[in-house]
Design goal:
By secondary structure, this protein is an alpha/beta fold. Among the domains are: about 160 residues, no CATH class; about 60 residues, Dna Ligase, domain 1; about 210 residues, UDP-N-acetylmuramoyl-L-alanine:D-glutamate ligase (3-Layer(aba) Sandwich); about 140 residues, Protein-Tyrosine Phosphatase, Chain A (Alpha-Beta Complex), CATH 3.90.190.20. About 35% of the residues lie in helices and about 20% in strands. Strands 25-24-23-26-22-27-28-29-30-31-32 form an 11-stranded mixed β-sheet, with helices on both faces. A hairpin with a 2-residue loop joins strand 13 and strand 14. The longest helix is centred in the N-terminal third of the chain and has 17 residues. The two termini are about 65 Å apart.
Length: about 900
């Protein structure tokens, strides 16, 4: 077996609404074999990976995989399950897998779920699948691999790049609220929400957290000064920079004292309850290794507490206990530490609810102060402290005391957060009992620190007591209940007309007064920015461009062209559109990305209809059975969408049935674009007033206008705004490269992007209706389509034009020079043996040749691959925009 290719689909995709890895697996000599052909294989495999016995497989119950292997299943399917089991063994809790035939003998696609916020560049999923392949082949060959060393490496890599406990909890809480979440790279940085409602959170620090407040909190001495000025009790402290000053501070304050670095965190360099000068000197040296500015402060007796304040309210409180072990009269301190660390809740850093205990220099020194060593055997029940400071990051534990907090203590903590200026913070306290009123007298209680970006794990999963959903409290602060986190999203897919429809919808919404973000094949546009609003020039019909639009905080509505390629290669760049538009589904891109049939195209483009919000709007072409049929797919029906059909005529049987059932439809009736809902008819505007429709002779543009009107009306856009926008949708300004007419000398030149049979037939029909003359075509076609589709497109050209100039784009898309010309010419002659065809070397030669072939006033159709070279050439030739009414 071997892995031929890998791709990760990061958004909703045709397999799952969550990220997946898709791997092309070549079974090689195992092509015709199943598990029953290798006696003992299943038993050896399960002995190596016992967890496989619990896999459900298609049976829907534990043991389903074992049954499948006993009946006989192919080894690609087994590899899928092994990869899932290995994923669980490294801590990646995933359960979805699927193996499908990839169209060739012995070739399969293995689809494996990925954790939702796993970085897209993570090597872990690919490495796990490779290990699964080696495991299956190793068991087959009687040489099973040693899994644990490789699993340990992958486990460490996964732990390194996974979201921290606090950030993961925030992501879960946001998704429960329906707030979109996107992780930024490998950071604990999340984008929450879309467009103008987008917020950012980094662990427990929000984008509203005060930078000044963070600076104050980071400077422990300054924080104490600010708190003291607010009347909040704090320890007496001195800032020192050398050993002599540290000893002076000990004498001035009086023992016992606490020594800590001024800007330290997570208990690093902190020494507690020191009375002897030697202890203070050693503690100063440790603290100075973290920050050369060291704080010596009075020690406040009592218990350690952390109170989480969110938005001026106490969200949770925990009592903290320093790292320790409890003797049993038999085990050494080192053995007891090892026993505690076996708890799966303990991990390195902050990736688990608790941190592993250590026996480093600080812990050994603290043991010595208690008369213990690593090999000491403590008495049964004896508590041996490894640390004096009660930090989770040094192995401490927490007990939830949220319900015990006395109102006086709660008010003090809220005032402390306000004094520092923090929206979310952790207040560290020492006092005798958090459930009692604040004790009176100096040094009886105090706020030790106010922590910015506080860790949440002590509250989420305390060692004792109930967990608190503090992440939800932070999400509620950022998105108060009832406030939006999303903007309207219109997603447009189909074979032809996507770009024009997207541009029309964006123009309508902009005329309504919304700040619109648009992504289409020509780039990303933000209404009102730069020339034409273009901010990113590229083929922007995929998920990255959608993410770019939705991340812009100025955007109030998003209109996204959603092409087949982006769906297949990376998934969707959004979730839950409000409106999904499917213009039509006809033959195109066949032979690309394993898209072999039009049914494959239907399956891919259906994703846009499936991934709308519940009760969202679905705009479908009633004149295209494949597009209209999407409304009946179970995966679409479960969204309970409002279906809006559009079509050329009210006489359409599909439209008539839909309206009779109370549905909404858009069509042309008596030369007017009409919206119909039950018995009510709302005229939008006359066909002759639709800009770029050439008085209705460009039927495909009329269809795009109907689709755009349906999408805009679904978002409650007033009918008069729709009409005004469609009148002002000037093609040269708003829809460059699509149905634009230029005058070159005596000849009109029609520039269009038609590149498949249906599009070519539509543009050819328009040329005949508009000019009533045969015309000349100068054409190129994409080289990455299969030969049969290129030939069919060429035949459509021959139906419309008797003279055709063929040229090749600079990007041959894998074809040999001259190969596409030969294919196109062959298709032309098959359909029309007498067709006159000329091979031209490049775009310039093709257009000038076509103009030479054309008679005075005769139209020339120019099909292109890239628009900018066409614009440059037309400028050189002195072309001027032609009138839409010229015939």
């Amino acid at each position: 077996m071997r892995i031929d290719a890998l791709r990760r689909l990061g958004g909703p995709n045709v397999y799952l609404s969550r990220p997946v890895l898709v791997a092309r697996l070549e079974l090689a000599e195992l092509t015709e074999r199943e598990t029953t052909d290798r006696p003992g294989f299943a038993e050896r495999l399960v002995e190596l990976l016992p967890g496989l016995a619990d896999h459900h497989c298609s049976a829907g119950r534990p043991g389903g995989l074992l049954d499948a292997m006993a009946r006989g299943t192919y080894f690609g399917h087994v590899t899928e399950h092994v990869a899932l089991e290995l994923s669980c063994l490294v801590g990646r809790e995933v359960c979805f897998g699927r193996t499908v035939w990839a169209g060739s003998p012995g070739v399969y696609d293995v689809i494996l779920e990925c954790p939702r916020d796993e970085p897209s560049a993570s090597p872990v999923p690919g490495a796990l699948l490779a290990l699964a392949v080696r495991t299956v082949t190793g068991v087959l060959e009687g040489r099973p691999p040693a899994l644990e060393p490789e699993l340990a490496r992958l486990r460490a890599e996964y732990e390194r790049t996974r979201l921290g406990v606090s950030t993961a909890a925030l992501a879960r809480a946001a998704r429960r609220r329906g707030v979109p979440v996107r992780r930024v790279g490998e950071l604990n940085l999340l984008h929450l929400g879309y467009g103008r409602h987008r917020r950012t959170v980094w662990a427990a620090m929000t984008d509203a957290t005060s930078a000044i407040g963070m600076e104050i909190a980071a400077d422990k001495r300054l924080a104490q000064v600010v708190l003291a000025e607010a009347g909040i009790p704090v320890p007496e402290g001195r800032l020192v920079t050398n050993a002599a000053e540290a000893l002076d501070a000990l004498r001035e304050i009086g023992p016992p004292v606490v020594v800590k670095p001024l800007s330290g965190h997570q208990g690093e360099g902190v020494r507690v309850e020191l009375s002897e000068p030697a202890e203070v000197l050693a503690a100063f040296r440790a603290a100075a290794g973290v920050d050369d500015r060291v704080l010596v402060e009075s020690y406040i007796p009592g218990r350690d507490y952390r109170v989480l304040v969110v938005g001026g309210r106490v969200a949770a409180a925990a009592e903290l206990t320093a790292a320790h072990v409890v003797g049993d009269g038999a085990a050494t301190v080192a053995a007891l530490v090892e026993r505690v660390n076996a708890d799966p809740a303990r991990g390195e850093g902050h990736d688990r609810p608790l941190t592993r205990l250590r026996l480093g220099a600080a812990e050994v020194a603290h043991l010595a102060r208690q008369g213990h060593r690593r090999d000491t055997v403590p008495a049964d029940g004896e508590v041996v402290w490894l640390r004096r400071n009660a930090n989770l990051s040094t192995g401490g534990t927490s007990r939830d005391v949220t319900d015990e907090v006395h109102p006086q203590v709660a008010r003090m903590c809220v005032r402390a957060a306000a004094a520092i200026g923090m929206d979310v913070c952790g207040v560290d306290l020492r006092l005798p009992d958090i459930a009692a009123p604040l004790p009176e007298g100096p040094g009886a209680a105090g706020v030790l620190e106010v922590n910015a970006a506080p860790g949440l794990r002590m509250h989420l999963r305390p060692h004792e007591g109930a967990g608190r959903d503090v992440a939800a409290a932070i999400i509620d602060l950022m998105f108060p209940p009832g406030t939006p986190s999303r903007i309207p999203i219109v997603s447009v897919t189909g074979t032809n007309g996507k770009t024009t429809t997207v541009r029309m919808v964006a123009h309508i919404l902009a005329r309504r007064g919304l700040r619109v973000g648009m992504a289409c094949t020509e780039g990303v546009y933000l209404e009102g920015r730069g020339a034409g609003g273009l901010v990113y020039k590229a083929d922007a019909s995929g998920p990255r461009s959608a993410e770019m639009v939705l991340a812009d905080r100025s955007v109030e509505a998003a209109v996204l062209e959603t092409a087949r390629g982006g769906i297949v290669r990376r998934g969707l760049g959004y979730d839950r559109a409000d409106v999904a538009v499917v213009t039509n589904i006809t033959a195109d891109h066949l032979g690309v990305d394993d898209t072999l049939t039009v049914d494959d195209l239907v399956h891919i483009k259906a994703l846009v209809a499936e991934e709308i919000r519940d009760g969202g709007h679905l705009v479908l072409n009633a004149d295209d059975p494949r597009a209209a049929g999407l409304a009946e797919r179970p995966s679409v029906r479960r969204r309970d969408p409002v279906v809006r059909l559009f079509g050329a005529s009210a006489r359409s049987a599909a439209i008539a049935r839909h309206v009779a059932r109370g549905g909404v439809a858009y069509f042309v009736d008596g030369g007017v674009l009409v919206e119909a809902a039950a018995a009510e008819r709302t005229p939008l505007l006359p066909v002759g007033e639709v800009a770029g429709a050439f008085g209705g002779r460009a039927a495909h543009v009329v269809a795009d206008a109907l689709a755009a009107a349906a999408a805009a009306r679904a978002l409650d856009t007033p009918a008069e705004v729709v009409a005004d926008a469609l009148r002002s949708f000037a093609p040269h300004d708003r829809n460059p490269g699509r149905g634009c007419v230029y005058q070159v000398g005596d000849n009109p030149v029609l520039v269009d992007y038609a590149h498949n049979p249906a599009a070519v037939a539509a543009i050819g029909a328009f040329v005949r209706r508009q000019w009533d003359r045969p015309g000349v075509a100068a054409v190129t076609l994409p080289g990455d389509r299969e030969d049969a589709l290129v030939a069919e497109t060429a035949r459509a050209l021959a139906d419309a034009f008797g003279r055709v100039v063929v040229y090749e784009d600079e990007d041959l898309r894998g074809r040999a020079p001259g190969e596409m010309t030969d294919l196109i010419v062959r298709g032309l002659r098959e359909r029309r043996p007498g067709v006159r065809h000329v091979a031209a070397g490049d775009l310039k030669s093709a257009l000038t040749t076509a103009l030479t072939l054309a008679g005075p006033g005769e139209p020339v159709l120019l099909l292109y691959e890239k628009l900018q070279p066409v614009a440059d050439l037309l400028h050189t030739l002195g072309a001027r925009p032609g009138s839409a009414d010229a015939g």
